[in-house]
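Researcher: I'd like a candidate sequence for this fold, 210 residues long. If you have to choose between options at a position, lean toward the conservative one.
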């Protein structure tokens, strides 16, 4: 590809989005950022990585709740910007980290509203990974050693959290096919086939770009 393509992956919990992102990055020979975003955001913002992890993909909007949990941190200057709720600071830190990483070249970014943050980037491929609930529940139960009921509860809670986070910050509806270039059902497509489909789309989408 002539231009540094950035691929964002939104995903339902248990659908394999993280694994597909990791494999895709290896396949294309480019970096993959998932939890790694927290490290970059911490380095650039002065917020602690623990605080970033605590609010990761959570749309909590109450500053009083934030302070009551003790989940706040000082910046390098020793002063916290109390004019903005900490979760808003976390989103801004992740927003800035996504923009900063995108300027370094082609990459894969998993979750965290990256498709929204980079919506004006000209060489963007937006992917949504999903699967039927029962298949995702079975995967999570096996992977995490949970009962099916425990896994179902975890899947539903995680999906709700991700949807609320995306909807809260983007003003769009998480999982709406109209916001993505490609939606893949990993209940019927293998991870490797998903990787190849995304790579092919990225190649075709910008084949004629100068």
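Model: Candidate sequence:
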């Amino acid at each position: 590809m002539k231009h540094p393509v950035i691929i964002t992956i939104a995903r339902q919990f248990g659908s394999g989005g993280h694994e597909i992102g990791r494999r895709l990055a290896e396949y294309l020979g480019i970096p993959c950022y998932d939890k790694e975003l927290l490290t970059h955001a911490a380095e650039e913002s002065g917020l602690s990585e623990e605080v970033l992890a605590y609010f990761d993909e959570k749309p909590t909007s109450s500053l009083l709740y934030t302070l009551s949990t003790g989940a706040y941190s000082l910046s390098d200057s020793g002063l916290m910007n109390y004019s903005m709720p900490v979760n808003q600071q976390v989103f801004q830190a992740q927003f800035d980290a996504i923009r900063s990483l995108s300027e370094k070249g082609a990459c894969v970014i998993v979750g965290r509203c990256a498709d929204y943050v980079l919506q004006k980037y000209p060489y963007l491929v937006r992917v949504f990974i999903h699967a039927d609930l029962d298949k995702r529940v079975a995967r999570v139960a096996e992977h995490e050693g949970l009962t099916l009921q425990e896994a179902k509860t975890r899947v539903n809670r995680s999906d709700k959290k991700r949807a609320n986070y995306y909807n809260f910050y983007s003003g769009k509806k998480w999982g709406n096919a109209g916001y993505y270039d490609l939606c893949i059902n990993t209940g019927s497509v293998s991870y490797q086939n998903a990787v190849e489909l995304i790579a092919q789309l990225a190649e075709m989408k910008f084949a004629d770009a100068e």
